[in-house]
């Protein structure tokens, strides 16, 4: 378990630090907690020499605050809500919504179920009911093929919301961005896989 002394130095005064410092600190946190090298099979079925467990960062207190600040700054000013497919996006949309309230630019949080609720409203989407045409930005922790976030986009559009943008914490650069472009969706990521690999290498050299 990481103690406070091991946190990135950029996380000093996290609520008021510059966004550049927050971004550097969040990258270090991803490298220290989420990025692993080895032999893995991804949810897409692809084999990989590395794995990114984004929940190690999105469920971390400083990680949640850092990503909340950074993602809030990336949202269009007319965004009504952020949303994402459960389970990976759950802590992300929650963090962004909470930070947005502190910054007096409140946006709602929506969670998209993988299957319709089996009772009650039988809903796919959990969260406040917004006006038809409300602008929603889809959030994701790690994008590989892009299918998870695209499923969220489809459910939101079927519900009558306006969705034209996806933002991810990390882009593995394995087809997701191309898929979104084909669908006419804007895509941004805080980091790509090369950012993580390069910074991990620097941190290892610094500790050797």
UniProtKB/TrEMBL annotation:
Cofactor field: Mg(2+)
Catalytic activity: orotidine 5'-phosphate + diphosphate = orotate + 5-phospho-alpha-D-ribose 1-diphosphate
Annotated keywords: Glycosyltransferase, Magnesium, Pyrimidine biosynthesis, Transferase
Pathway field: Pyrimidine metabolism; UMP biosynthesis via de novo pathway; UMP from orotate: step 1/2
Top EC category: transferase
GO terms for MF: magnesium ion binding; orotate phosphoribosyltransferase activity
SUPFAM superfamilies for the chain: PRTase-like
GO biological process entries: 'de novo' UMP biosynthetic process; pyrimidine nucleobase biosynthetic process
Enzyme Commission number: 2.4.2.10
InterPro entries: OPRT, Or_phspho_trans_dom, PRTase-like, PRTase_dom
Binding site for 5-phospho-alpha-D-ribose 1-diphosphate: 113-114, 117, 119, 140-148
Binding locations of orotate: 144, 172
NCBIfam families: pyrE
Family in the record: Belongs to the purine/pyrimidine phosphoribosyltransferase family. PyrE subfamily.
Primary role: Catalyzes the transfer of a ribosyl phosphate group from 5-phosphoribose 1-diphosphate to orotate, leading to the formation of orotidine monophosphate (OMP).
Subunit structure: Homodimer.
UniProt protein name: Orotate phosphoribosyltransferase
Lineage: Bacteria, Bacillati, Cyanobacteriota, Cyanophyceae, Oscillatoriophycideae
């Amino acid at each position: 378990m990481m103690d406070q002394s091991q946190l990135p130095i950029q996380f000093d005064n996290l609520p008021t630090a510059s966004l550049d410092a927050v971004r550097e600190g969040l990258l270090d946190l991803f490298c220290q907690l989420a990025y692993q090298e080895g032999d893995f099979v991804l949810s897409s079925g692809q084999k990989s020499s590395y794995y990114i467990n984004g929940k190690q960062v999105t469920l971390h207190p400083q990680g949640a605050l850092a990503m909340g600040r950074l993602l809030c700054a990336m949202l269009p000013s007319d965004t009504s809500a952020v949303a994402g497919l459960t389970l990976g996006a759950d802590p992300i949309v929650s963090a962004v919504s909470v930070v947005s309230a502190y910054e007096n630019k409140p946006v709602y949080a929506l969670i998209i179920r993988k299957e319709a609720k089996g009772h009650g409203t039988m809903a796919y989407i959990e969260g406040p009911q917004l006006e038809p045409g409300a602008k929603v930005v889809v959030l994701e922790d790690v994008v590989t093929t892009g299918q998870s976030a695209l499923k969220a986009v489809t459910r939101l559009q079927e519900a009558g919301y306006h969705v034209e943008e996806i933002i991810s914490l990390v882009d593995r650069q394995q087809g997701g961005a191309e898929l979104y472009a084909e669908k006419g969706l804007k895509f941004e990521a805080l980091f790509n896989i090369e950012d993580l690999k390069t910074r991990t290498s620097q941190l290892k050299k610094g500790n050797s």
